[in-house]
Amino acid sequence: MRVLHVGKFHPPFAGGMENFIADLLPALEAQGVCSAVLVHDEGRAGGHSPDASRIYRARSYGRVLYAPVSPSFPFRLHRAIRDFRPDLLHLHLPNTSAFWAMSVPSARALPWVVHWHADVVTRGGDPRLDRAYRLYRPFEQALLARSHLIIATSPPYLEASRALAPWQARCRVIPLGLDAGRLADPDPAMREDADRRWGKGVFRVLAVGRLARYKGFDRLIEAAAALPGCRILIVGAGDQEPRLSARLQELGLGARVELMGFRSDAEMHGLLATCDVLCLPSLERAEAFGLVLLEAMRFAKPVVASDIPGSGVGWVVREAGHGLTTAPGDAERLAAALRALQLDPGRRRQLGDAGAAALRIRFGIASTARAIAELYRLPELEAASPAEIGGR
């Protein structure tokens, strides 16, 4: 079986969807599925990668409201189909360029699997996204109507998704997975550097993500005020950095909370390996799954995460049994959950071990790839045509 994936970007571009696709393709190869991927590239002229990874790239010219601008994408899609000769397309959404599959004849002739990573939801009250979604939604629904099967990443997200509501019958839940081998153990020098950043004799809390309003890092900063003996490192860059820096100064927490900006993979692995707990304080369903929760499992670290209604974040924590959940946006309860783990090293070890076991058993990329490969072989993808599906 040959499958062409269509995504936004590919590593070294940093992002949850991007890392997942990079992990998924070789895992699918192990399941007997020959895979390639078409993505945008902001730094190349496009074309096909010279290595054996089968990465096709379409030149893009920046982004508008998170959407890559790539006039050449439909031509690259046709060429990738012509060259790779896939049996089906696997479209990763949200991604406006995936809509070109509806107008490229060679794409229309193939069955489609849609991987629903997240709804398009308003991020931090941005009214531009509400207006843009009015234009986006008809294309989104038309693409879903022509799909054969849809993969949702958690039961709560599927149940809460307004976009997927008309198409529940063709949805299947397959959680995201992680290739533990991609996250290398830090070398001694990197571990020592991480230890220096944390300092001695403190409770080490790590938070990772783009500095956006929906990530809730301001609530974590407020919680830090009630956590003596705690050191919090927040890794990531984004437009909320000035506001978060101002909040740190206002609360006088500059010595206990540090905004570290973007960090390399090697630095990230050092911080994950040496932290006491990972915190994901997100506020909205824009945080659909929380792949960083799986990265905490890789290093056997407990987590404290927001139980966001309609999101997969709380579901992942409960399924893995590797942490505590709190109401989103409640800094007082967030501080209480972190304090409970600060005072109980034995419980931290127990939760961390549970996460490591969950990664081996359920949330590893091999398990995800196996489920997706089985889905590819379902009769729905062999017998039905897109026109038949769209007319149901």
From TrEMBL:
Residues 15-177 form the Glycosyltransferase subfamily 4-like N-terminal domain. Keywords: Transferase. Signal peptide: none annotated. Pfam families: Glyco_trans_4_4, Glycos_transf_1. Residues 199-355 form the Glycosyl transferase family domain. One of its GO terms (molecular function) is glycosyltransferase activity. This is Glycosyltransferase involved in cell wall biosynthesis. The lineage of its organism: Bacteria, Pseudomonadati, Pseudomonadota, Gammaproteobacteria, Chromatiales.
